[in-house]
């Protein structure tokens, strides 16, 4: 069990997260849903080690995880894909996929092995035909994002976090990524998916947690919620959504 306990984060006077506690089970796609400003991005940055919380803890099977240390979290098998397309545009696709896997002062990885790792990662998301030796910046934006997703998959992560990572993809590419997410969950991995698209949440979620104004307001298992239920939880009290009172 991956557990977040009493997590809080403030930026000056702004409280981005307020004493959040959520459990994530292996073998599930767990969606995090919320409106802009709900705290989703801050939660992802804490999970990936980019931001250190003011209070609270992360544990995996009862063992404390490091906070504020991206490399340490990568090394224990947690990989994050952000909505921003983070590539080295002047480097080949293969270098972008293997970025961070090859140690700076270690012997170079044999090219055959490099090709194998990059090809397998791309194949998992239906992108096996992408050219590996072209500069990544020459690819269309959607294909650049596939390269970023493949970079995360090349690490064979036990925990995969995707923060609006399919927003730039077309329908077919998005479906291939979804199938990969479902396969990872079926293999017992943790998949955490942040999205604002209700149809994606309804299709993928084994479990959904809703954030509102930096607070965790509800969690539902598959079959326990409808789009109306989620919209109601997302909306601030007293605000109507789609003609209904929240």
From TrEMBL:
Record keyword Translocase present: yes
PROSITE patterns, sorted: ABC_TRANSPORTER_2
InterPro entries: AAA+_ATPase, ABC_carbohydrate_import_ATPase, ABC_transporter-like_ATP-bd, P-loop_NTPase
Keywords recorded for this protein, A-Z: ATP-binding, Cell membrane, Membrane, Nucleotide-binding, Sugar transport, Translocase, Transport
Cell membrane listed as a keyword: yes
CDD domains per the UniProt record, alphabetical: ABC_Carb_Monos_I
Annotated ABC transporter domain residues: 2-238
Pfam family, one: ABC_tran
GO molecular function, one term: ATP hydrolysis activity
Name of this protein: Sugar ABC transporter ATP-binding protein
Source organism per UniProt: Oricola thermophila
